[in-house]
Amino acid sequence: MKKLLDALRQIVGATHVLSEGDLSAWELDWRKRSRGKALAVVRPRTTAEVAAVVKICVEAGISLVPQGGNTGLVGGSTPDESGRQIVLSLQRMNAVRAIDAANLTMTVEAGCILQTLQESAEKAGFLFPLSLAAEGSCTIGGNLGSNAGGTQVVRYGNARDLCLGLEVVTAQGEVWEGLSGLRKDNTGYDLRDLFIGSEGTLGIITAATMKLYPMPAAQLTAWAAVPSIDEAVTLLGLAHRHLGAGLTGFEVMGQFALSLVAQHFPQQRVPLYLDTPYCVLLENSDHESESHAREQFERLLEIAMEEGCVTDAVVAENLQQAHQLWHVRESIPLAQAEEGLNIKHDISVPVSLIPEFVRVTDQLLANNIPGVRLVNFGHLGDGNLHYNVQAPAGGDAATFLREQEENVNAIVYDSVQKFGGSISAEHGVGSLKVGKLEKHKSPVALGMMRAIKQALDPQNLMNPGRVLRA
Amino acid sequence: MKKLLDALRQIVGATHVLSEGDLSAWELDWRKRSRGKALAVVRPRTTAEVAAVVKICVEAGISLVPQGGNTGLVGGSTPDESGRQIVLSLQRMNAVRAIDAANLTMTVEAGCILQTLQESAEKAGFLFPLSLAAEGSCTIGGNLGSNAGGTQVVRYGNARDLCLGLEVVTAQGEVWEGLSGLRKDNTGYDLRDLFIGSEGTLGIITAATMKLYPMPAAQLTAWAAVPSIDEAVTLLGLAHRHLGAGLTGFEVMGQFALSLVAQHFPQQRVPLYLDTPYCVLLENSDHESESHAREQFERLLEIAMEEGCVTDAVVAENLQQAHQLWHVRESIPLAQAEEGLNIKHDISVPVSLIPEFVRVTDQLLANNIPGVRLVNFGHLGDGNLHYNVQAPAGGDAATFLREQEENVNAIVYDSVQKFGGSISAEHGVGSLKVGKLEKHKSPVALGMMRAIKQALDPQNLMNPGRVLRA
User: Fold this and answer.
1) What is the bridge-based pairing of β-strands A218-226 and A247-254?
2) For an interface test with A, which of B184, B242, B288, B352 has the most A Cβ atoms less than 10 Å from its Cβ?
3) Out of B160, B444, B451, whose CB is closest to A455?
């Protein structure tokens, strides 16, 4: 191993091969559920360095775990406990290589922080719409590796939909120069989308060309109380019809989820509408003007009230109020944590089936665990719920987690499968859900995935054991 | 072979295995450039029948050429001349299986005509935006197999971007039930996008779940004269900024292309603006109202005139006028044909590089072939030009094609490559561009494509020789 480490030092410089001291920033996952042990953390600065690192690791039969901001939620970017894996950190590859205004594109290195993309785009007069809670520390390489979702998917799609091209170091240490500002290119198989969402198991994304959008003239936020989750779905349909592509956010939040925010963060003044089971946060982006956006929004809410799918609503008066409303939505996970550990899910079903899914699954859980509490919220516009399960009031959260996690997961995922849904809507598979994927994914699909993995990474050295069992 | 044909008759019924008489509807490609000879044309009605057909063909070592409307432009859906390939026609699988209004999706079989999708969507109150010249006879399976583009890509993307899930019969005759109405699903490799655009070389798409959009309240069309192609790109930027997602079409047409329409179809009253080298057709779709759309459009054109990137413009007064303008644009290929055979290209480069690409390539061709005439038009909003090359005035078109095609292709494709572009933007590779792909695509990408083909279709029986050399 000393020989390998020396060779790595030759490539990236001695200070960028870390093998001693506290490496927990790279070895411990974001949710602090698994701590691995790396042979070393290697921090290349260029694509050529990444390629050279891969080549000598492949020669030595040493596997690589690519890592961006290490903010993933499924244990996909930390090493296993063997002490024989290299963590390949892309953090030093953080340049914005180019912004092409007329082409509406931006080429960035994999280690670029998501927020840097947003800010660089804004400076150039454009919007880069990908937005999620970890945006201050996650990297675009990780976003692409996991096909991150977030809050703007209803209009702009997932990370996949925002990417036009990739630069990738293959499992053989070759460089695929697939960066492209092309919106149309039908010259063979879609390698780009194969690497996006492959969680570093097929190769290493080193750079990407991403789409930019014109900066909207105004972004307004509204908060609406709805009498049921069925009516939330009706409201979504109205919003699509009346706001068109202006609808850039549509989040649903259950009353219990909101009450946790109100209880643990009383300074936030949560608009609770206590008599309604759900609230919806809507965002309307307008290329024309703020007054036009407001007029459109008010018209929508008026129609929705007439049709009975909204009982009360408010449109934020200014940016500060808008931030406040988004802040409430984003505080739900933190409020949950204050209330104690809980069992998290990141599931999706077709939007039309959300109400029935929630009714059926709520009931199954209530029957199975009397008094269980459901922290239900998420991106309803995309059919994506963070359908989280909390111990009964007064119960011990740690005990609940230990005793009930497998049981609750089984109930929720079986229900998801019955409704034609996904057990991982936006977080990916990582190491956390490998076993569950085997249970819930079609064997034909798994067979094709294995064949592709074998074809592109025959030695199984690229993030082994993630997505597919090693 | 008799045994195989009998077995096929057992599966799909004797009347749906055609092996005698005039089979040119299936054996001759749309552009009439290649006529193949099929062992038989097999027309299954169900996915199970497709799977059974594939299974016995695989057993017999007989290859399959899947075919939809047979409107492809690159010889991808007709058999070779061996008389040993089965044409698998999906035309009888033409059901609209379901429309899910709340989920904004539509599930259709592969043989559904594109226009049927558009009409079924409209009947349900929605828009299915994929639109292209062959929409009256092409099928959605073929659209997905070739990742078709068309005129609405600037807003809605290619066929790929409109698809949420697929049902596929694999090269082993298994059925992958990948139909999905999910907008977020991160459970492993993106098999959907791998099959889309693979031109039937990895398996056979039998059904798809497609996205629907709210029907716009109004669609307006404008025609603008621009003083140069550089200014057309400037106009595109202004249109993105001022119309936002309302910009659903942006086509550019060179003066010579338009003059051919005027000459060969004088009844069309082409708005020529003879003193300008290019005209642009813009479409603005509005979810609010026609008057709002018109106001937005007029504001844009006013600004564009002030900035000097438009010299003259007209907004269609009514739907009939709008159709008339689109008709002029769509008549360019027909007018070219009237003028005589020409050398066609379907290329893309980044939008920002279009003006320089056109200048450089025009000059190269003019130097190489004095008097050569360029029929330049296309989807500028996507950086996609149909950069076609016509014989010098008075020259014999057939001779020109015979003598100059290879030379002209080499000049154009080398130039495309220098500008980081694609030699097939929206038509695919088929058999026509297999050799050219080998020359212009990165060897690393080709290597990965071959590995994937080998992994999923190890016997090379799925549309062999298309995309990749057999």
Assistant:
1) unpaired
2) B184
3) B451
Using an 8 Å Cβ cutoff, are A453 and A55 in contact? no
pLDDT at B298: 96
Between CA A60 and CA A68, with CA A63 as vertex, the angle to 5 degrees is 135
Q: Do B175 and A348 touch (CB under 8 A)?
A: no
Residue type, B323: H
CB B456 within 8 A of CB B449: no
What's the Rg (C-alpha) of chain B? 23
**What local confidence, expressed as pLDDT, does residue B217 receive?**
95
Nearest CA in chain B to A466: B188
Cβ of B174 and A426 within 8 Å? no
Q: Do the Cβ atoms of A191 and B449 come within 8 Å?
A: yes
Task: Identify the pLDDT of residue A424.
Answer: 98
Q: Is A143 helix (H, G, I), strand (E, B) or coil?
A: helix
pLDDT (mean) for A272-287: 93
Alpha-carbon distance values, A349 to A379, B103, B162, B415 (Å) = 11, 10, 18, 47
Q: Are B223 and B281 in contact (CB under 8 A)?
A: yes
Per-residue pLDDT tens over the stretch B226-283 = 999 999 999 999 999 999 999 999 999 999 999 999 999 999 989 878 789 999 999 9
B161 φ/ψ sector (left φ>0, alpha ψ -120 to 50, else beta): alpha
Q: Cβ separation of B181 and A352 shorter than 8 Å?
A: yes
Using CA atoms, how far apart are residues A305 and A290, in angstroms rounded to an integer? Answer: 22
How far CA A220 is from CA of A147, A421, A450, B240, in Å, comes to 27, 31, 45, 20
From CA B312, how far away is CA A397, in angstroms rounded?
A: 70
Predicted local confidence at residue B275, as pLDDT: 85
User: What's B46's DSSP letter?
Assistant: S
Average pLDDT value for residue range B113-127: 98
CB contact under 8 A, B427 and A186: yes
- The two beta strands, A17-18 and B203-211, are unpaired
Nearest to A198 among B189, B287, B350 (CB): B189
Strand intervals (E) in B101-242: 105-109, 126-127, 163-170, 175-178, 203-211, 213-214, 218-226
Query: If you measure CA to CA, which chain B residue comes closest to A454?
Result: B455
Q: Do A445 and B178 touch (CB under 8 A)?
A: yes
Q: Which residues of B touch A349 (CB under 8 A)?
A: 182
Residue A273: per-residue pLDDT? 83
Residues of B whose CB is below 8 A from A206: none
Per-residue model confidence as pLDDT tens digits over A319-377:
999 999 999 999 999 999 899 889 999 999 999 999 999 999 999 999 999 999 999 99
| Chain B residues within 8 A of A350 when measuring between CB atoms | 100, 103, 105, 181-182
Segment B428-439 shows an average pLDDT of 97
Among A183, A201, A299, A463, the strongest candidate for a mutation testing the B interface, having the largest count of B CBs within 10 A, is: A183
Q: Which residue has the tokens 């939040």?
A: A253
Mind giving me the DSSP string for A124-146? TTEE-----TTTTT-BHHHHHHT
Is the pLDDT at A432 greater than 90? The verdict is yes
Which pTM does this prediction carry? Answer: 0.98
At residue A177 the predicted structure's pLDDT band, cuts being 50, 70 and 90, is very high
In percent, the amount of chain B with pLDDT more than 90 equals: 96
Rounded to two decimals, the ipTM of the complex is: 0.97
